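Hi all, posting the design record for the shared folder.

TITLE: backbone redesign
STEP: 1 of 1
STRUCTURE INPUT:
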């Protein structure tokens, strides 16, 4: 199982100034792999803050660092892990269901966007790390495979 996938978004520079980055579902290389049901915007994050610390049973997410930088630590509860540094607004981090995530090492002034496939439902969250590991080992949480691979990686998105 692959823990994540990077989605390169296209920056469009208009003739009237500014930059446009579009987030929409679709089969294009810059398309989200799901219909958008929820959007969260995190701002005023302090450098020592830690976000996440959970997994989802069914929700897929894409995280985009709109400003600043942060590190997303991921694992499948079976010993496979990845660490991804987000610091570009034109790269999204796709997270399939049943991947534990912790977001930390925020640069000052970081703004983080989370785009989700499902509406908020507290029952979709697994907030207890030991419970997550038990679910995964018992096969109660079957990870969605993106490529069939298992690996541990560190990625820089700069």
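Okay, here is what came back for every position:
SEQUENCE:
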């Amino acid at each position: 199982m692959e823990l994540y996938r990077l989605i390169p978004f296209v920056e469009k520079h208009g003739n009237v100034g500014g930059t446009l980055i579009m987030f929409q579902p679709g089969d294009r290389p810059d398309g989200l792999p799901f219909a958008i049901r929820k959007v969260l915007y995190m701002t005023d994050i302090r450098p020592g803050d830690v976000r996440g610390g959970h997994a989802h049973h069914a929700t897929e997410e894409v995280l985009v660092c709109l400003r600043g930088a942060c590190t997303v630590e991921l694992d499948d509860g079976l010993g496979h892990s990845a660490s991804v540094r987000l610091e570009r607004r034109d790269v999204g981090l796709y997270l399939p269901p049943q991947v534990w995530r912790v977001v930390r090492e925020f640069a000052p002034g970081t703004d983080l966007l989370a785009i989700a496939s499902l509406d908020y439902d507290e029952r979709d969250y697994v907030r207890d790390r030991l419970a997550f590991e038990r679910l995964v080992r018992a096969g109660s949480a079957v990870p969605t495979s993106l490529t069939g691979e298992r690996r541990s990686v560190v990625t820089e998105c700069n």
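COMMENT: The chain has one domain: 5-11+28-157.
Let me know if anyone wants the other runs.
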